[in-house]
Amino acid sequence: MDKILEGLVSSSHPLPLKRMIVRKVVESAEHGLDEAQCRAMFDLTTRLILEGGDPFQRQVGHQVLEAYARYHRPEFESFFNKTFVLGLLQRGYRSLDRKDVAILDYIHNGLRLIRSCPSVLDLFGLLQAELLRVVGERPEPPLCARLSDLLTDFVQCVPKGKLAITFCQQLVRTIGHFQCVSTREKELREYVSQVTKVSSLLQNIWKAEPSTLLPSLQEVFASISSTDASFEPSVALASLVQHIPLQMITVLIRSLTADPNVKDASMTQALCRMIDWLSWPLAQHVDTWVIALLKGLAAVQKFTILIDVTLLKIELVFNRLWFPLVRPGALAVLSHMLLSFQHSPEAFHVIVPHVVNLVHSFKSDGLPSSTAFLVQVTELVHCMMYHYSGFPDLYEPVLEAVKDFPKPSEEKIKLILNQSAWTSQSNALASCLSRLSGKSETGKTGLINLGNTCYMNSVLQALFMATDFRRQVLSLNLNGCNSLMKKLQHLFAFLAHTQREAYAPRIFFEASRPPWFTPRSQQDCSEYLRFLLDRLHEEEKILRVQSSHEPAEGLGCADTSLQEVTSKAAAGTSDNEKTLIERMFGGKLRTHICCLNCRSTSQKVEAFTDLSLAFCPTPAVEDLPSFQDPASLPTAQDDGLMQTSAVDPEEEPVVYSPATAAFVCDSTVNQRILGSPPVEFHCAENSSVPSESAKIVISKDVPPNPGGEATPSVTDLLNYFLAPEILTGDNQYYCENCASLQSAEKTMQVTEEPEYLILTLLRFSYDQKYHVRRKILDNVSLPLVLELPVKRTASFSSLSESWSVDVDFTDINENLAKKLKPSTTEETFCPKLVPYLLSSVVVHSGVSSESGHYYSYARNITGTESSCQVCPQPEHLALAPSQSCLLGGESPSAAIDQDLENKEMSQEWFLFNDSRVTFTSFQSVQKITSRFPKDTAYVLLYKKQSSANGLRSDNPAGGVWVNGDPPLQKELMDAITKDNKLYLQEQELNARARALQAASASCSFRPNGFDDNDPPGSCGPTGGGGGGGGFNTVGRLVF
User: Fold this and answer.
1) Which of 65, 66, 171, 487 would be 45's cystine partner, CB 3.0–4.6 Å?
2) Residue among 168, 383, 432, 454 flagged as catalytic
3) Going by C-beta distance under 8 Å and a sequence separation of 6 or more, which residues neighbour residue 107?
4) Could you tell me what percentage of the chain is helix, strand and coil, using 3-state DSSP and rounding each to the nearest 5?
5) Span 516-549, pLDDT tens digits
6) Whether pLDDT at 846 is above 90
7) Which segments cross the bilayer (predicted)?
8) Each residue of 408-422: b (16+ CB within 10 Å) or e?
9) 909, 461 in Cβ contact below 8 A?
10) Is 72 a catalytic residue?
11) What is the number of other CB atoms lying within 10 angstroms of the CB of residue 906?
12) 916 neighbors 440 (Cβ within 8 angstroms)
């Protein structure tokens, strides 16, 4: 029969005839045959299957073999024995190579035919060893897929025990060597199918023998982390990821990133190759594992690896977005890589040129899936442009492309960026090592105490949080300038962009420290603030003069000579000619003195940058002499802003200093200009140097406190400051008209309000009885809304910043006293209540000015909020000269203040305590003194609320600024980027050092925030200063 069949398949008869004869041959298998005939038929059919020249021959071989094996099973068992199978696997079949896929197909089919026979058990044992050898020879994907089919059907052939571990490892290595050189879709689909079969086999083995999983994964990592340039592991390894239980992510990543035996070069290679896996079309969870490894590396602070990998692979990941099958995973990885890469715009700028094409392409197809994808891309792009502003040429085309898609809110952008940073605690895996020392959860940066510099740190944080001022400073073009403003811009830029938890302002400290401030000793923050603003103001004026013949850049210099600047100072300046300090903090205060005898008047208009508010005297101490600390003088300014009074242009100006400030008062000006005798008059906010010969009693109409013991508010102190003062007794006023000392009434009125109102509460006074300076620890209520009464006159612009009398100066020889303007002359007043919102509070913690600690509360307030809805201005609030309506009755903002306070409780307030920055609430600000009696509000910043202040620049990039701030100059951005990279390297080195000491070192830390027994200004571990101990420790009085 075998001869007939052999002749038939090789004959030239028609195919239908051949098939009919083959059917007869198959039917003859039912008849009895001897062993020799059966063996001859098995040999023939095996040869047809393995060496058949065409599909028909191979098909005939399979049909006849299955028929004869079924009816003659013992004979087939004898034929299909261990020796025959071993020969096929080791030597092949005749001309057929042993690695041909037909060999495994034949063996697989033979096992099916004797599945129920006892002899198959021997073959299982043989195949366990032989297939391990076959896998170790790195078979090609087709052969490996056939082997996987065989082992999937006959799991008994899978090696057991330790051999199973070896088999899995060898199979992983084999997959790592897979390659597909074809680019045709048919071959690619077939290749993916083959790889899928092999990975499914591994999954089945891992499930059956869990002990094989970890060694297999170790082998995967060994393959992808190889630094051998001659070997590039196949991306087909990505097919294994979907079979790894997600529950193992935390354990595996922590073990991998903490392993000291894994070198950085190997980890970099592994991560790069895992990112390459995003190209594998059917793999699931690749993005999950890639992001987990990125987070794991960030948790152990291996930032060098993250930087290198991100810059190397970011463009490849972006290009994967074009392919639908891998798009979701690629977008997830791209988002994490960009959002976490916050120290430099370099990674984002690699992909920016390609964003427009991507958006246009997906917009054109109009598919719902494409629209949803573009919404995600738009959100990512807005976050990155928000964080890295200053590149309008790059961003404008992108903004135009995505303008039709929703833009995320600023709050959402901040939240996304804060959660994604490498140094964010939320970015670390659960239970990962120690907490990182990056920016706090607030996203704000602290200032390192350089040795009793808390007075500077608290003021700088308050100025930084003055949003409009910060934006103006950052928008200045100061390239090539080494001014103090340039250093302040540098400081503000670092506070906004650095990755550090706290920044050391050493350069700015040395440049801004007043000459009389002893280094490393406690100083008055209010005095420092005045000096700083004065320096910035004077410096800008000098730069304007120097650049009078150059294009006005940066500080907006006008073409004005020094003489012109000086001559214009007395006549007032327009908004365009004002310095930045004048525009942001400058106001004007008019002092009006009326002789109570002849009713003649004199007045003076002065510039100020802050108002110093004295406490209302109590009846018990009203008649006792009390002198304010010279360091707490008010700022009565002329064009120099920091001078305490206006002077005659022909005389030398009085420069502000602690030594002279206490002696400069309004009477000095009166004497110089009017030629009057040296009779002094003082208002409550002024200070005098304590001496036995200069005892002055302050007499003011003190508004009563409703309720007797009610806590005074800032509004009360402001009302007291503006209340009329009677100059009597030793403080009488020399009247030119009367030519003698006379009692007089002195009033002060704000005639021009500042953009930011700085209020200093005069808490430090001199006790003449005991000759010591003491601190007034009275609690003061801080209103969230403050209304500043501003009075303007129709002839206001004609008032010079000196004593103004109604005199015809052409008749200089006449008696000036006769020309004094009587108080009965009517003036046209324009009363107005200007609303302000509390922006920041500088707190002093301690019992004297020589010791203690400063820290500040602050929040972001911009000038874009309309005041119309917050603080209405009823017409009936027009103020009379006596200011009776100001001092009496309930403030019209009281109800609004209360309502707004309730809404503001939940808004973000920050507590800046040197290096530490934490979230807090307005309720904490209000209750600080009641909870900690030594901690009292000292300097307050209020922001004027107006619909348009005319100070903000247009955004060149469609509103995409970091925290709304303008773009930085390239020089500044480069410096920040360089420092951020340095910081990440420092963190990485510290993490490695900690890892080496982890076995023996123990770490304890206090959680952020304050408990009820630990005030923010304390000397404990949560304090912001330089050391522990209490105020009773002499060596630690200041920090």
Assistant:
1) 65
2) 454
3) 85, 88, 89, 127, 150
4) 50, 10, 40
5) 988 888 889 999 999 999 999 999 888 888 777 5
6) no
7) none
8) beeeebbebbbebbb
9) no
10) no
11) 10
12) yes
Return the ∠ at Cα 856 (arms to 850 and 860), rounded to 5°: 155
Q: Say if residue 637's pLDDT is above 50.
A: no
* DSSP per-residue string spanning 17-69: HHHHHHHHHHHGGGS---HHHHHHHHHHHHHHHHH-SSHHHHHHHHHHHHHHH
What is the average pLDDT across 392-405?
A: 85
Tokens of 951: 């100070």
Measured distance CA(485)–CA(532) in Å, rounded: 10
Long-range Cβ contact pairs of 767-771 (< 8 A, separation 24 or more): 767/626, 768/625, 768/626, 768/627, 768/690, 768/695, 771/690
404: its two tokens: 């039709």
Q: What is the rounded CA–CA span in Å between residue 969 and residue 474?
A: 9
What's the predicted TM-score (pTM) here?
Answer: 0.58
Contact 108, 131 (CB under 8 A): no
Q: Give the whole-angstrom CA distance, residue 840 versus residue 414.
A: 21
Kindly list the distances between the CA atom of residue 592 and the CA atoms of 171, 794, 833, in Å, as whole numbers in the listed order: 96, 16, 20
Q: Tell me the pLDDT tens digit for each residue of 491-525.
A: 999 998 888 889 999 999 999 999 998 888 888 99
- 108, 146 in Cβ contact below 8 A? yes
Residue 537 bears catalytic tag: no
- Residue 515: count other Cβ atoms within 10 Å of its Cβ: 6
C-alpha span between 1021 and 1024 (Å, rounded): 8
Q: How many residues in the chain?
A: 1039
Q: Identify the CA nearest to 699 among candidates 651, 663, 733, 653.
A: 733
Instruction: Supply 584's token pair.
Output: 């942001």
Q: Which residues in 492-634 belong to E strands, given as ranges?
A: 502-503, 587-595, 600-608, 611-613, 627-628
Best CA proximity match to 686, nearest among 725, 719, 714: 725
The DSSP annotation for 976-1036 comes to HHHHHHHHHHHHHHHHHHHHHHTTT-----PPSS--TTS-TTSSSTTSSSS----TT-GGG
- The token pair at 454 is 């808390």
The first and second tokens of residue 126, run together, are 């043989």
Contact predicate 941/466, CB 8 Å: yes
Separation of alpha carbons 1030 and 1034, rounded Å = 9
Out of 665, 853, 871, 1019, the active site residue is 853
